[in-house]
Amino acid sequence: MTQDLSIKVKELKKSFKGTTAIKDISFTVGKGEIFGFLGPSGAGKTTTIKILTGQLKQTSGHVEILGQNITNFSANLYERIGIMTDNSGLYERMTVYQNLAFFARLLQVPTSRVDELLQRVGLAEHQKKLASKLSKGMTQRLILARAVLHQPELLFLDEPTSGLDPSTASAIHELLLELRDNGTAILLTTHNMEEATFLCDNIALLNDGFIVERGTPEELKIKFNQEKRYRITKTSGQQVVLADNHETVETIQSWFQTGQIETIHSCEPTLGDIFIQVTGRKLV
Ligand SMILES: Nc1ncnc2c1ncn2[C@@H]1O[C@H](COP(=O)(O)OP(=O)(O)OP(=O)(O)O)[C@@H](O)[C@H]1O
């Protein structure tokens, strides 16, 4: 395999009793790449993460994580990855600080990193709270801080910012981009199209156990921008959306000549629009 591949998945399948959750998935994620899995509930996102992190065994297919075949998942591999899923076990009777300090000792990370991360994820003022007394958003931030304590080479995030307020979500985005810039590969799942557009280098749209489309957010937007439109704000404040045709060109020309146009933008489809075009289904 290529040295720079952090994840390599080939023809992955996973069946449960009565359901085939993953039908046939292949993809790769490079070092320092944020790869987003986007798909509606039940598409198979969490199942994929569980297989890739050794929590579930695939029915068939080949998976390599940091160059190691997943069937021989070693303890050494766990030290090189970080996992944030909703079942990441925290010690409920320990405080926020104690939880992180405990894992820092295990992973031989200096406690200065604990202090830094508490600040970064906005938990510094809550560090003396028991983990059992945290809100859902705080718990999520603590799990994320724990997952990135040792600056893992590969990070798995299942819905990292769901339910968080916009400013915390944006602090977390910054942290993830910084990790990416330092070479961490990140596989994340999200329902949030804006988040995927902003964060991801590459995106796979997952539907019913298959990857139905993939590419960079830009590539997908260009590919699916078949019906080009323009959004115009007139000096009167009125907003209009017009299709790209001869009539529109004439209308815009006449509005320009009479000074009626404030702004004009071409409308690009969102990832949500693209998902509907590809699958006929809404993302959420
Ligand atoms: N342990 C299990 N036993 C049986 N079926 C399962 C199990 N885990 C998942 N499934 C089924 O596999 C399919 C994919 O589930 P998965 O949790 O991977 O979806 P998801 O894309 O992560 O959805 P969500 O966005 O709601 O978390 C679903 O039909 C689900 O019911």
UniProtKB/TrEMBL annotation:
Tell me, what is one Gene Ontology molecular-function annotation carried by this entry?
ATP hydrolysis activity
Q: Gene3D superfamilies from the entry?
A: P-loop containing nucleotide triphosphate hydrolases
What Gene Ontology terms describe where this protein resides (cellular component)?
plasma membrane
Q: Where is this chain's protein located in or outside the cell?
A: Cell membrane
Its source organism is Vagococcus allomyrinae
Tell me which residues make up the ABC transporter domain.
7-233
**Annotated keywords:** ATP-binding, Cell membrane, Membrane, Nucleotide-binding, Translocase, Transport
Asked if Cytoplasm is a keyword of the record, the answer is no
Name recorded for this polypeptide? ABC transporter ATP-binding protein
Query: Which positions, given as ranges, span the membrane?
Result: none
User: Which InterPro entries does the protein's record reference?
Assistant: AAA+_ATPase, ABC_transporter-like_ATP-bd, ABC_transporter_ATP-binding, P-loop_NTPase
